[in-house]
Automatic annotation (TrEMBL):
Similarity annotation: Belongs to the short-chain dehydrogenases/reductases (SDR) family.
Keyword field contains Acetylation: no
Organism whose genome encodes this protein: Pseudonocardia kunmingensis
Keyword Iron attributed: no
Domain of life: Bacteria
Gene3D superfamilies assigned: NAD(P)-binding Rossmann-like Domain
Entries under InterPro entries matching the protein: NAD(P)-bd_dom_sf, Sc_DH/Rdtase_CS, SDR_fam
Upper lineage: Bacteria, Bacillati, Actinomycetota, Actinomycetes, Pseudonocardiales
GO molecular function, one term: oxidoreductase activity
Protein name: Short-subunit dehydrogenase
Amino acid sequence: MTGVDLSGKGVVVTGAGRGIGRAIADLFATRGARVVVNDLDAEAAGSVAREVGGHAVPGDAASEAGVEALIAAARDAVGEVDVFCANAGIAGAGDVTTGEDRWAEMLDVNVMAHVRAARLLVPGWVERGDGRFVVTASAAGLLTSLGSVQYAVTKHAAVAFAEWLAATYGDRGLAVHCICPQGVNTRMLANAGSRRGILTRDTALEPEQVAGALWDAMTAGEFLVLPHPQVRDYTVRRAAEHERWLAGMRKLQRRLDHPDPEEQ
């Protein structure tokens, strides 16, 4: 796909009932796209679809059957799917003692949902030489996520999958973008508990700012979308001085384990 002319393009945004997904759906609709709004919350999906003049397709966007149904319904609503925004994700605290069911759930939503959508869409895009896949990952996928090993691991996997798509199909018509913000004023951040202070140390952004950063990256033809620009510096430091970076993470972990009452 050359440029970022979305006029008449079919766009699917998962997890679009609120937060970042909602902001992306709204922005793309203003750019002339025919937007399919997906969310598990049918009421929220319908509300956003009405606001943006799009089509609500509520339901599961993670399971194999759910992804197949979503893409089929999207094609019925807008014709060909030109852009797929794999935005739906889940978070939550967890450590090495967390059970298999939670691991499976987070892998399903945060990683396999992307894989399943790409499996259905990428071959056709490559054949016609035109398509765009957007992954909403996290700065946790470039760094880590203290307090949630499942989130850290699955977001790293989401980044890795997006990178692989870009490396493999980037010269065959597929544009790939990977969004890696820190704290964003969404329900997920509100439920972050003691980790909220770490996530917002560089200021929490509004979802619309994240959507704007995505648009800027699309315009520039850039893979990595960093709404918090300082994440680039953190990532460079992590690669260049890994031991020092890990020492800093341990220091932050100690703050989580023994919080200062004055910071509460």
